[in-house]
Amino acid sequence: MAGHRGPSRGRAAAAASVLGELLITFGVLLGLFVAYSLWWTNVIADRQATAASHHLRDQWTQQPDASGDSASSSSHHPAKLATGDSVGFLHIPAMGKDFTVLIKMGTGTDILNEGVAGVYQDPYAAAMPWAKSGNFALAAHRDGHGAKFHNLDKLHKGDAVVVETADTWYIYRVDSTLPQTSKYNTDVIAPIPKGSGHTHAGRYITLTTCTPVYTSRYRMAVWGTLVRTVPVDAQRTLPPELR
């Protein structure tokens, strides 16, 4: 009988060895995938966003105002923006002293993967900051591809959110936050965002991202109201909220 056990034990050992090697290989591949998703995509996205940011600022410096100078003026608000067009920059001190992210039109994967904050165009077309009323609704990744809104949960009531365009600083204050809601709850980006506490038309901003961290199961929302605007001077002097 002993002679019959040997081959069986050998085959079992060989199978265990192969299984072990497969598990190790799987673990290595999984580790590489995680590194790619959470690190390398950030590197690529940051490079793309940096190049696009430099390009936008170069455009701004080349735009003459009514007097012929290079400073921006209110006439630089485009009549219409297409998907992929750059709008300006989003500054949020509560997410880091120098936190700045480029804003582009659109929230498709191809846009957000560039490491930017995207302006919603569907199901509600977001109102631009310079509009007389409406909701400037933005989305950005929380992890991977720049992870620009990774720390969105750090925002609280009263925190400043600043949008920089060619000619104006738009200063918002956070009114309320929604830690978690269904990803199908599109009313959070409505012109009068549902759940924000607002009941009348105004000049609002909404920031959204996925939650919990490392998942896309739910959505988080932060709402704010425009409190003032500051014209951009030739030196692009920062408003007090960003100093």
Rg calculated over all Cα atoms? 24 Å
* General form: elongated
Oligomer: single chain
Fraction in helix = 25-40%
* CATH level-two architecture: Beta Barrel
Outline the biggest β-sheet. 8 strands, mixed, barrel
- The CATH homologous superfamily is termed Sortase
**Helix count?**
2
CATH topology, by name, is: Sortase, Chain: A
Mean pLDDT, rounded to whole units?
Answer: 87
Helix and strand sequence: HEEHEEEEEE
Structural class: alpha+beta
Residue share in β-strands: 25-35%
Write out key terms for the chains shown:
single chain, 243 residues, alpha+beta, Sortase, Chain: A, 2 helices
Describe this structure in words.
With 243 residues, this protein is an alpha+beta fold. The protein has a single domain (50-242), classed as Sortase, Chain: A, CATH 2.40.260. It is built from two helices and eight strands. The chain has helices at residues 2-61, 109-112, and strands at 86-91, 100-105, 117-119, 134-139, 160-164, 168-182, 203-211, 218-231. The chain has an eight-stranded mixed beta barrel with strand order 1-2-3-4-7-8-6-5. The chain is elongated and about 85 Å long.
